[in-house]
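dumping this here before i forget
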Amino acid sequence: MVRNVLGTVLALIGATAAVWSPFRAWYDGRLGRHFRLAELFSGGGITAAHAELFASLFLPFAFAALVTLAGLLLRSRLAVAFAGVVVLGFAVLWMVRQGQAAGSLSVAGDGSGLGLGVLGALGGGVLLLLAAALMAGRVRAAGPPPPDDETYPRPKPRRFGARRLRNRSPHHTEEPPPGPYGDGRSG
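structure:
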């Protein structure tokens, strides 16, 4: 139970960091929500054109947050891990495309280069993967018993006292149990 609670908290923090990251500076003071999602997949690469909110980097991160919430409600480690891979994948893809457009990626203290938005996306993706690894997931109910095949033959049932009767000598005769009147007759 503690693993699920810690995993849930980490997943919520990771999803929040991922969704919040497009509203922070990504490169040279430009917000992540200003980068067009289609530019990541086009031949022209990243341009200076601004994007609408749902056509920007916000869209895959919002999708990943929804998948995270669904995964937490269903206690699915796979869904939370998938959300982490989506966040990390789009952040790394953006870094590659930005590096191609700018010639290189840099980090500087004066606000130029990579910003805190990229760090938020990468950190959120890592937290989602850690949460998926930490969660215990669903407990599966016991299924039906395995089919009764002769792969493992069942042992023969032993009758109570069978060993005792087998070890007696053949000349031994059983005396009738005493009846109610002590003479061996019943009633």
